[in-house]
Every structure is written in structure tokens, then in C-alpha cells.
Design brief:
- With 264 residues, the protein is α+β, with helices and mostly antiparallel strands.
- The protein has three domains: 71 residues; 98 residues, PAS domain (Beta-Lactamase), CATH 3.30.450; 85 residues.
- It is built from seven helices and five strands.
- Strands 2-1-5-4-3 form a five-stranded antiparallel sheet, sandwiched between helices.
- A hairpin with a 5-residue loop joins strand 3 and strand 4.
- Helix 5 runs antiparallel to helix 6.
């Protein structure tokens, strides 16, 4: 955004810069033999020409910056480790990133204008979630069981919030995080901990040590995933802040990681 000041030059400052640039162009000096009115008119025309050239330079710079920002947002949106979707009040998908398509095991193009509920094990649960998002002014989080086109399933954490589109109809933006492995790890960890608590006297010391080591590894893996999610959240906040400075809507849904998981 280094050229932002140049893109919004006040008319008086633009004229001053144009006059200064014209003064540097010695070959463009007005013939002193011409009448004063003619000299003044030529000077004015040349100054105005330089003003237009400077404005064109600023516009080209702005266009280049917008193109670069578009490519950046495209990459961040489509290749983020989290699925993103924009869903209208009827539950139809209007936008989706590549990550979501991969999560659902479908082609990205096949998602548009399709009901998101077709990927939910219990469509009524998603219907309730959609209505809750549309009614609430806050971000809404829920865990849903999703079914894949391939026949598999995953557990997803959805974090969404309502926005108003140009037609005024309600729309939500939602982040979809695959938490299947985390849930499986939590269940396995709970089972192992119960086993150790109930059968501690009967578990050989070597096996008990192996199980405790596995618990430690699972906790470490979970912590690494949470740290990664926290870094992504901070990056999304920075991008949303940049969009706010540019007068644009938030680009990303920013979900929160529960405090107890961060401390885990």
C-alpha cells in the first residue's frame, strides 16, 4: 500500500507537483515570443496533461496493488487448512473454497447453488444452525456430523455469522474445521486414562509406561494442531483489519479456540 497517498492526492497538491514536473522539462518551455495569453493557455494545457499522466500512474499502481491483493486473498482463501463457505438463507452454497471441496470429497464447482444440508447426517440440525446464525449478531459455533460423497463421515466444527448481501437477504459465512481426529484422540485418551485409573494395580509397569508415553504424544499432537489454528486465526484477523482499512467487508470468519484447549 506504499502508493496509497499518491492515489488520493488533493487537487492543489496535484497541481503543485505537475507544475514542478513541467518546470523540469526544459524542452517543453513555452516560446517567449508568443502572446502572454497564448503562453498561459499552452502552460495550462501542458500542466493539465501532466496532471492526467500523474493520475494515470496512480491508477495503474492502484490496479497493480488490487491485482496482487486479489491473488493473495485467492491463495489464502482456497488453500487455507480450514473449509470456507458462504451460504444463503435457503441453505444454498454460493461460495466455497478448495479445502471444503476436498473435505467433502467433491469437485468445487459441484458445490455452487447446492444445499449444504445434503452433506449433513441430520439436515434438521443444520437447518437449526442456519436459522440461529441468521438471527444472532454474534458468531455461532456448533459440531455437526458430515457425510462425504465417497460414503465416509467426518465430525466438523462450524463457526458462522450472518452478513447482509446486496439484495438484503440473509447470508452466512462459515468456517468448517475437520475435528474428527481430535475427537477420536479425546475419546482414546479418555478411555486410556479410565483404564489406568481402574486397573492401575493390574497393569504391568512397562505397559503402564508405554500407555503414559502414548498419552503424552497425543497431547503434544493436539497442542501442535491448536497452536497452528491460533496462528491462522491471528493471520485472518490481520487480513480482516486490512480489509476494514480499505472499506471492505471481512474476508474470513474468525473462530475462537476454547480456553481449556489452549491451556491443555
Amino acid at each position: 500500500m506504499g502508493k496509497e497517498e499518491d492515489n488520493n492526492i488533493p487537487s492543489a497538491e496535484l497541481r503543485r507537483r505537475a507544475e514542478s514536473r513541467l518546470a523540469e522539462l526544459r524542452d517543453e518551455q513555452v516560446d517567449a515570443a508568443l502572446p502572454e495569453d497564448t503562453q498561459a493557455l499552452i502552460h495550462e494545457l501542458r500542466t493539465h496533461q501532466i496532471e492526467l499522466e500523474m493520475q494515470n500512474e496512480a491508477l495503474r499502481q492502484t490496479e497493480a496493488e488490487l491485482t496482487e491483493a486479489h491473488h493473495l486473498y485467492f491463495d489464502l482463501y482456497n488453500f487455507a487448512p480450514v473449509g470456507y463457505a458462504t451460504i444463503n438463507a435457503k441453505g444454498l452454497i454460493s461460495q466455497a473454497n478448495l479445502t471444503l471441496a476436498n473435505q467433502l470429497d467433491v469437485e468445487r464447482a459441484s458445490l455452487f447453488n447446492q444445499p449444504f444440508a445434503q452433506f449433513v447426517t441430520d439436515p434438521r440440525v443444520f437447518g437449526n444452525y442456519l436459522h440461529q446464525c441468521l438471527r444472532s449478531k454474534e458468531r455461532v459455533t456448533a459440531e455437526l456430523d458430515l457425510k462425504l460423497r465417497s460414503g465416509g463421515q467426518l465430525i466438523a466444527q462450524l463457526t458462522g455469522y450472518a452478513i447482509d448481501n446486496e439484495s438484503g437477504a440473509g447470508t452466512i459465512r462459515v468456517a468448517i474445521v475437520d475435528i474428527s481426529m481430535r475427537k477420536l484422540g479425546e475419546q482414546s485418551l479418555e478411555q486410556v486414562q479410565k483404564l489406568l485409573a481402574n486397573e492401575e494395580k493390574h497393569v504391568p509397569a512397562e505397559l503402564r509406561q508405554t500407555l503414559q508415553h502414548s498419552i503424552h504424544q497425543m497431547r503434544t499432537y493436539s497442542k501442535l494442531n491448536i497452536d497452528r489454528e491460533l496462528r491462522m486465526i491471528e493471520l485472518k484477523k490481520e487480513i480482516n483489519a486490512l480489509n476494514k482499512e480499505l472499506g471492505r467487508d471481512d474476508k474470513y470468519v474468525v473462530y475462537s479456540v476454547p480456553k481449556d484447549l489452549q491451556d491443555g
